[in-house]
Structures are given as structure tokens and as C-alpha cells.
Amino acid sequence: MANDKIRIKKLYTLSSENRKFSFSLPLKHKIKIGKREYEVKLKADEKYGTYILWKNRKYPVEIIRSSQNKYEILFNDISYTFTVETPFSLQRMKVLNSNRGKIEQEIIKAPMPGKIIDVLVREGTTVLRGEPVVILEAMKMQNEIISPVNGMVVKVMAKPNTNVMKDDILVEIKL
Amino acid sequence: MMKIKRILIANRGEIAVRIMKTAHLMKIETVVVKTAIEPYAMYLTGADVIFDNSEDNSEIPVFLNIEKLIAIALETKANAIHPGYGFLAENAYFAQKCIDNDLIFIGPSPDAIYKMGNKTIARKIALASGIPMAMGSEGNIANEEEAAVIAEKIGYPVIIKAASGGGGRGMRIVRKADEMEKMFIIASKEAEKAFNDPSVFVEKYIDNPKHIEFQILGDSKGNVIHLGERECSIQRKHQKLLEEAPSCALDEKLRKKMGDMAVQIAKAVDYSSAGTVEFLLDTDKNFYFMEMNTRIQVEHPVTEIITGLDLIEQQIRIANGEELRYKQNDIKLKGWAIECRINAEDVQAGFSPDPGKIENFNMPSDPCVRVDTGVQTGSSIVASYDSMIAKLIVRGKDRKDAIKNCKMALDKVWIKGTKTTLPFFRMLVRHQKFQDGTFTTSFIEKDLEKYYFNSDYEEMLAAWLATKLFVEENLNDDSINVNFEHGKTMSPWLLNKRINQF
Amino acid sequence: MDLSGKFYKAFSDRQSAIEKQYGPKQAEKQHSKGKLTAHERINLLFDNKTFEEIDAFVTPADQPVEFGKVERSYGDGVIVGHGKVNGRLVFAYAQDFTIMGGSLGIVHAKKIAKIQEMALKMGSPIIALIDSGGARIQEGVASLSGYAAIFQNIIHSSGIIPQISVIMGPAAGGAVYSPALTDFVFMVNHTSYMFVTGPNVVKEVLNEDVSSEELGGAEVHARKSGVAHMIYDDEENAILALKKFLSYLPSNNVENPPIVNDDGSVNEINEKLRGIIPEDPNKAYDVKDVIAQIIDKNSFFETSELFGANLVTGFARLTGKTIGVVANQPKVLAGVLDINSSTKGARFIRFCDAFNIPIITFEDVPGFLPGIDQEHSGIIRHGAKLLFAYSEATVPKITIILRKAYGGAFIVMNSKNLGGDFSFAWPSAEIAVMGPDGAVAILYRKELAESKNPVELKKELVKKYRDKIANPFIADESGYIDEVIDPAVTRKKIISALNALNNKWVKVPARKHGNMPL
Asked: Hey, CA dihedral for A48, A53, A56, A60, is it positive or negative?
């Protein structure tokens, strides 16, 4: 009756620096460079841990974080952040971005009074949702104050070894 | 006759392992100290005696606790102490305390440490010995007005330095007269905070210099030789990252000139041990004395490689009272050596420390590679100490060959568990300015657009992995291989009761 | 089949008419808002070609009074039917915003009610894909009665079949109670909203300017109100996650949850667990690291992640079998219990109990959150919910005390005398009436006041208290917990405890229902 299926045939993987890689499904264990296809293998062993084997060379890999379609991957000692999008979700992203104002900010406030033990980000750091930005000691416990959003830190108000009151602004993040 | 029978290594990590290695070769016993912070550290394996200090919960690390270290040495019947680098290595009081307790301090005399440790005194000595120096104040300066007068005389830019300083703290560059007041206050405050001494002095600031240092050996009989230079211009915020020996900026003539000067200043303080005289070399090949380090340095292996000498052995022999077996003419520099400091740092986050547990650790075992390390698989890089994982030292027949070998070796290093400075070195060895040798101490800040290297396909491979994870988690029907029938079969005991309840 | 014969003329006409109704133009309307069409959503959810739609051709009711205009469409703005999700029968309805804004008229409502009743009869889960402007004004009270019937059905089915709502567009006014009554609510960021009174009314009544997103967007409900249990950045991720989520749940309250084949790849002994709890008892850690090291690989599906984050709840698997995980999160607010975390935990536990899912509790709780705000907002009332839910649950209940287990919070978090089946403690556990600092301050008030060096004395007393009272061994030796275990064997211990509890049955006293402090 209605069009049969919206089977996902392709995935777009976007890096945080806006590079776009496309992969058709089912996902092949091969990557095409020019005209030749090269085999990619994901392996793990005792000596090397998890690694990718590509053109006879091993690259260390580690999955640092993943939430929903967002992945932070450490590849050969360099970390990359990706979102994996379907053709529709990519289109949706464009639609929403154009509907919405471009600049959005998230302000992280102290959830309780306490003492700042450590500030884990600096201006310019990119943070993922769920990543700790500040460590606040309250109730004799060190609490990680986490970023509720993905974005880039634009302002850091929190200073180590200072006391803050509830709702004091700690960090501003640009989405 | 070897008087030194047993050495207390008042240090940890890579340098403790390094000292132990030579001590073993010389059939001298070693004592190391186990701490609560690193109870399973690699440096604890292979020592003859382990002093367990892990119950000590004091705020000050034991390696900075003079009384405690002396007590440990006496208790474990060590008759010598090697301080390594960092911690108490350049503490004249500690050296004196060792002597007072009949312990041999493997290093220079307390007097030499004191004189070279205070930059104002060191400057005076250097001046008196006719060593070229950047123009500047003769001693400490009292206030910003005095600083401004001197700066007018020698011309801007000038640099304000802490008299007791080191490591870049308490240092400020002043480019214009109206910045002087502010910078003076900052530098002096920083100096007070860092070194408990607010005194500062002013000297001419040399733009874009190279950092050249000479390795010195002096014995207690007054013989002093130099072992050639090292270039340590690859620095970030005054922290050295890569060192090499020799330097492509020096020819034989300049080497001899600078070397002679280095020997001269060492002689002026009756220096007896291994030490390093640091110079700045400007673009017109004028050199200026900066300071003398009275200890073994992190980057000593590059000198060992091109001279074939074991510097720790030399330190021990000199401390033992032996006379140097080499004259200046015996020292021949052969080949080229490069050292990369592989630290647990996040290059992408501005080299911020990234402590953690080393999950996999494999280093290349090629003949052209030497690895000095204090970690192994399973070790932890702890936040309380420096972030060094390993020093990758590579040799070659010339500079080009050494760079080629270094590039190869960097690709074979395999460290998992923390982020490392490897991507930075991979970038560096490919950089034109590094290859042609025209880099200076401002290279990282000025010439490097990107702090890390990744080949064209690496990001794509990482993206492929992200995609694979997404597919496995969400789209792969096999991954959720659910057996719903299972839920319908259960023991009659349970099923009957459950049904009767409803 | 030849559809050109005379019998089939009308049949094929209708077919082409409905195809036109759901044509590319309608799809474009949704897509331009960043939303999928109702059919696309259904197709994403169900296994390939397994969805059977019913009542596709019903048309809206006649208007009782001529006011505005009702579009004469097929299906009346909702698609209902059944199909297979990961091979299992599931019922669903999906509202279609392209037809009269997905508004709910009486025919629309009756279709939903019909599928709800079928789902209950079959004992199968039901999914609501909601994208609706609310009650259809043109149909007046009839549409309100439609809502009432839907609510009634949800309540009848509650605790018998899993009911899940996915909000993919607006849900406003009385309509919000349909998802609110169901077991779990999924929302999509930026394109879904829920509110009882919309921004316009807020503006009129209170003269406050607020956007739909700020008032009732996914973030707000996930973080602040707790209405949304799961939120996603786009609809595809939401539906893919929903499919995964369903794989943890049984079809009804008689069945046990499904299992996935356990490949035995997870070692029963895991030494990494020994290193997670920091030596410093005041230092935080992430309890999710503990969970991840115990359960089957990557099997944790967290619910209400952003709401009351000081208590972690979610489903996971152990040797392929579904478990419900409740864990204090030392990383957030030191893992204290407060109003939000108590209500979140209570509702999760009740769901697990209703659907035969064993509850594993990881405990590291310094106590209840002190303060005027909490007390005046009724932490007593809300904390009682968690207590009630734990005690009432008859499914297997196992507790692992990781570190702090102090005071009332210790009792509440599934203590053995509250009906917990097994209670294990790690050697790092501190079980006592209160934390060392508080206890010492009370017990030695006088001594501390008179001491010349109260700081030193306190330090000494705290150490003594830790050694003597705040450890797991006293509780172990007096039988208040079952065993102090090596953290490395936690998985093994839980698995064998669950095996022992496989056929657990508790006779509940006959009654209409208990009176939970709501």
C-alpha cells in the first residue's frame, strides 16, 4: 500500500570538524581508495589490545565514549568525535538548523553550594553530553558537574579552590 | 677501589631504572623507595633492597623529604645517594646533609650547586670568566623603575627572570616600556610563589634563539671536559619535548668555542660530576650563557649515544673520587641521536596531562632504537608525578638517517590506556623546518599549524569504526538475537502460582 | 491478480485513492519539519513487511454541529495494526499529523481503543507513536469521551502488558495523559512537545513568554519533569532504540522476559572491579563503570538518564537474561537520595516487579539529601515511595553494597529485612547508622569541645569509627548481610543467586491493592 519500506541504505558519518564520510549498507569490511578496495579488520589480542588492521599496518583504537549515535574514538592516539546519521536524519539536521537560530548557549550552574576542586575544561575545549567539566566538592564529596550538551566551551567562570553558591555560573558552552 | 657499595636512588620512574641498570653493571647494590602512590611501579623490580615507605601518608613526597631520605639511606646501609633529576637533585642543602652523614652524594659539591642554582651569582661568575652573556642587570633588581632604566640601556625586548627560577616560571618577556610595570609585578609574584624568593633580574631577550647545551664532565682533581652539545629547541612553554645531539647549527669551530666556554665556567666552580651548560644561540650565531644545570639531565642518552660513554657510570666514578679517564681529545662525536619524550599528555587539548593506566605497551626493538622507561603494561601514570611514559632514543649515521629511523620507530610504538605525545612527534618529523634544521625555540608556538599528525586515511578508518559500532548496535538484526519463546517456558510451580494470582 | 474485473473496480479505486492520500506531497510536509510520516515510522519499527494495518479505510464521524470543517480522509489520521518487532507480536498505533494535524476525533479514538483492547487480549506490548494536535475541536465532547476511553484502556492494561509511548510531535492538553499513563515515554529532541497548557495559554493567563521547546520540549521533560524516560536527537534513533528496548521486556506479566543467547564471552571473575572504588572514601566514581564490568557486554539500557541522575536505573542482561538495575550514583550529588531519584527509582522498581524482572541494586548512598527545600517538598512522602516499592516487589531482589550504606537510606535501598533476597557487600562497604563525621560529632560532642586539638581528635575518632563500626564485617557476622565478597566475583555471585531465585514465589495477601504513598 504505502511505499514499502524506508530501509536504511546509506549512513553518513560526520566528524566534529564537519568532514563527511559515507558508507553504504550492509557495511563492508572494505574501504575504497581510488579504484582499489582495501580490507579493514577490527581485531583484539592480549599484546596489542583492540586494533584496526589496514594495509598491513596495525592502528590502536579505543572507544572512549558512545551515546546514541555519537561516538568518540581514539585512533592511533588521536581522538575523533563522530555522529552517525541516516540520510533522513541528516536532512532533518539541516532542516532544524535552518529553522533554528544558529547560536545557542548552554550555561552550566552550580547545582549546590560547594568548593571547586578542579576545572576540567578550558575555553575552546569541545565537550560531549555527559562529560565532566568541573569537580565541585560539597557534602564532603567530590561531584562531577557534567555537561548536559554537546558543544564547545566558550567561557569558564569556575576557578579551582574557590567557593561557589548554588546557581553560580560555572561554564558557558556554545552548542 | 670502589668505595660505593650500595646506592640509595632518591628518585622514581625512568631515571631510577636507568641508574639501577648502570649500578648493576658496576656490581653496586641499589636501594629504592616504595611509595603509596606507586606501590607496583616498575622501578621497584630489580633493586637489591626495597624500602617500603607506602605507609607514609604525608603530603610531601618522600623524594623531597631530606631527613627521611637520609634516614632511609642509613637504615638500609647505603653509603651513597643518587638524586636523579628533579626532586632534590639540585638542592645544595641535601647534598651537604649527605656529606654530613658520611654518605657519598653522587653529584657536584654543595657549593657548586648553590652557586649555579642562584642565577644572579651564576651570572656574576660567568661575567668574571668572560663568558658571553645577554646584556642585563648585574644583580637582582629592586623595582620596576630600576628595571626600566636597565631595559632602556640594553634595549627592548628584555626578559625578567626569577633569580632562583627554572622551568619557565617567574619569567616574563617585556617588549615595550609601558609593559614593564605590570610584567615586573607578575614575574616577581610568580617567583615568590614558585620559589619562595621574589628576587628577579633583567636581561636582553633574544628572539627566536636555538637552545644549545653542552654536557660537561669534571672530576675532583680539577679536570673538566665537554662531551659536545645537545640541541633542545623543540620546547613548549619551556618544557623540552625533543632533543638531539649533535646540533646542525654548530660547526667544529663554533663547537670548540662554545665547548671551551662551557668548560671554563665549570672550572670556575670546581665542578666535579656530570653537568650541563645551557646557551642560547641567536640567528647570527652569537651565543649567550643561560644557566648551568648541576645534575644528570633527562636528555643525557643522546650524548651517550654519540660519545659511547655511560654518563651515570661517569657520575659514580667521579663521586668515588676517580680521575677522568678521558682527555678532551679522546672525545669523538659519532653519528646522530634523537630523543622523543613520550608523555601521557593530550596533544589535542594543548598538551594537558592525561594520567591513566597503561593497558598495552610495546616498544620497537630495532638496533637503532634505545628505550628508557619506567613503565610496563599495567603500570599507571599518576597525576602526582611527571607525565613521562618513555624516552624513545633513536640513532642514525647522520641527521637525515636519524630522522628516518625516528619516523619508523614512532610508528612502531604502541601505547594504549592514555593519550600520548606520539601524534605530535609524528607531525614534527615530517615538518620541513624540522627536517632542514631551521627551527628555533618558538617553533611550536609560531610555525606549527597543527600539533598532531594523522595520515589521510586515519580519520576515515575511525569513521568506519564509528559506523560499524552504530550498525552493530542499531541495525544489525543478528545483534539482538532475542529468544521470546524462552519467556513462555517456566517451571509449573511458578506458572501455576502466577496464573492463579491473576 | 487481475484487478480490472468489475468486482474489483471499486476496490482498486479505493486503493489508488488511499495511495494518493499518503502520497509524496504529504510526506514532504512532514519531512520539511524534520519529521517522518506515520507510515515511515511504522515501517522503521516493524520487521520487514510484517505490519498489518486495520481500519485503514474508516472515515471520520459526522459533525454534530457545523463549525469548522472535518477533512473526509481515510483512516481519520491514525494508523493502527499489528506486526512483528524482532520477531515478536507487537501492536501499535501511529498518529498522522498530515491529516487534520493528527487531531483526535471519535473515530480516530475508537480505532486506538480497538487496538488497545486487542493488545490486552493477546497479551502483547503496545506502542503509541504520538504526533497529534489534541482533541478535535469540531467534534466537541465526542472527542473528549474518546480520550477517556483510551485512558481507561491504558489503565486496564497497566501492569499486564508493556505500554510505551513515543512522542514525535506535539502532545498537548488532556492528550498528554495518554503517554503519562504508559510505562515509558520516549521523546525526540526539537520536534516533540508535551504540555497540559500550551505557550499561548501561559501567555494569556500569566503573561509569560515561553516557547514550546522551553515549556515542554524533550530536554525539559528528560531533565526537569522526568516525564520523558528516553530522549533522542532524531526519530530514527528513537525508533531503533525502542526496538532494542523492547527486547528486554516480556510480552505480558505472566511470561518471563526474553533471553538473548549468551555466548559466554564475559568472564565470571573480573579483577577490574577491585580497582574502581577509590581509596579515599570521599572521592566519587562512576557507578556505571561498576555495572558495565558485571553485566553482559554492552547490555545496559539506561532509563531516565538525565532525571534524578543520582540514582541510575536501567535494564541489562546477565547470561542473556533481563535484569533491572538500580544503583546510587556517587558521581552525582554524591549519590544521595532526593525526591526525584526516589520517585524515579520507585516507578522503575514497580515496572520490574510487574513484569517479572529481577532487581539488582548497587548501593553507595550517604543518606537522604538534607535541606529545607527537600523537607518542605515532601522527601518523607517521596522517599516512602521507594521504600514501599522495594518492599512490595516480589521478584528476586539482590543488593550489592559497594561503599556507603548509611541510616534510613540503607534501609530503603533493598535491605535484607525489607525483603531483599540476597545482600552482598564489598570489603569497601561502610554500613552504619550514620557516616563517621556525623557519628563522631554526636557521640563525642563533649570531648571534641573540650579538646585542645579537636581536629586531630576528630581525625582519630573517625578512623576508629571506620575500623570498628563502619565496615561490612559486623553486619556480616550478625547476619544482616549474607556475605562480604571479593568484588571480582560479583558477577558470579549474582548469577548463582539469580539461579537460586529462579522460581521465587511470594504469596501476597489478598487485597484490592495496597495504599502506596503517592
From this structure: negative
Across the interface, whether the CB atoms of B461 and A122 are under 8 A apart is answered no
Grid coordinates representing C169 are 510531535
Q: At what angle do helices B144-154 and B180-195 cross, to 10 degrees?
A: 120
What dihedral do alpha carbons C483, C487, C488, C493 form, nearest 10°? 40
Query: Same domain for B185 and B281?
Result: no
Instruction: Write down the H helix ranges in B180-219.
Output: 180-195
Contact B498 C86 (CB under 8 A): no
Domains belonging to chain C, first-starting first, are 35-246 (3.90.226.10), 271-435+470-500 (3.90.226.10)
Active site residue C409: yes
Q: Is A42 an 8 Å CB contact of chain B?
A: yes
The residue that leads in pLDDT, B15 or C17, is B15
Residue ranges making up the domain that contains B221: 207-334
Task: Give every strand in the sheet of A114-119, ordered side by side.
Answer: A141-146, A132-138, A114-119, A163-164
SS (H, E, C) chain A: CCCCCCCCCEEEEEECCCCEEEEECCCCCEEEECCEEEEEEEEEECCCEEEEEECCEEEEEEEEEEECCEEEEEECCEEEEEEEECHHHHHHHHHHHHHCCCCCEEEEECCCCEEEEEECCCCCCEECCCCEEEEEEECCEEEEEECCCCEEEEEECCCCCCEECCCCEEEEEEC
Whether residues B322 and B350 share a domain: the answer is: no
Exposure string (b/e) for C157-177, b if CB count within 10 Å is 16 or more?
A: bebbbbbbbbbbbbbbbbbbb
- On chain B, the residues whose CB falls within 8 A of the CB of C301 are none
Give the closest residue to B342 by CA, choosing from B419, B422, B410, B411: B422
- Note the helical H segments in B57-179: 66-75, 92-100, 110-117, 119-128, 144-154
Given this model, what pLDDT does residue B288 score? 93
B282 and B175 together in one domain: no
Distance from C-alpha of B231 to C-alpha of B247, rounded to nearest angstrom: 5
Model pLDDT for residues C119-166, shown as the tens digit of each residue: 999 999 999 999 998 898 888 899 999 999 999 999 999 999 999 999
Residue B47, in any domain of the structure: yes
Q: What's the CA gap between A70 and C101, in Å, rounded?
A: 32
Predicted confidence (pLDDT) per residue in C54-76, tens digit: 999 998 887 777 777 777 889 99
Interface test mutation site (partner A, options B361, B389, B415, B416, max chain A beta carbons within 10 A) = B416
Do B494 and C505 touch, CB atoms closer than 8 A? Answer: yes
- Chain C positions touching A68 (Cβ under 8 A) are 232-233, 237, 241
Could you tell me if residue B478 is inside a domain? no
Query: Which chain A residues contact residue C284 at CB under 8 A?
Result: 141-144
Partner residues linked to B67 by β-bridges? none
Q: What is the pLDDT along chain A (175 residues), one digit of tens a residue?
A: 333 344 678 899 998 877 899 999 888 999 888 888 899 999 999 889 999 999 999 999 998 888 788 899 999 999 999 999 988 888 888 888 776 655 567 888 887 777 888 888 888 888 877 778 888 877 666 777 888 778 888 888 888 888 887 778 888 888 7
Which of B184, B204, B224 lies at the terminal end of a domain, its last residue? B204
End-to-end CA distance of chain A: 41
CATH code, domain with B78? 3.40.50.20
At C439-463, the pLDDT tens digits run 888 888 888 888 888 888 888 888 8
Catalytic residues of B: 295
Domain A105-174 has CATH 3.40.50.410: no
Per domain, the residue ranges of chain A are 10-99, 105-174
Domain count within chain B: 4
> What pLDDT, on a 0 to 100 scale, did the predictor assign at position B169?
67
Nearest Cα of chain A lies from the Cα of B360 at a distance, in angstroms, of: 6
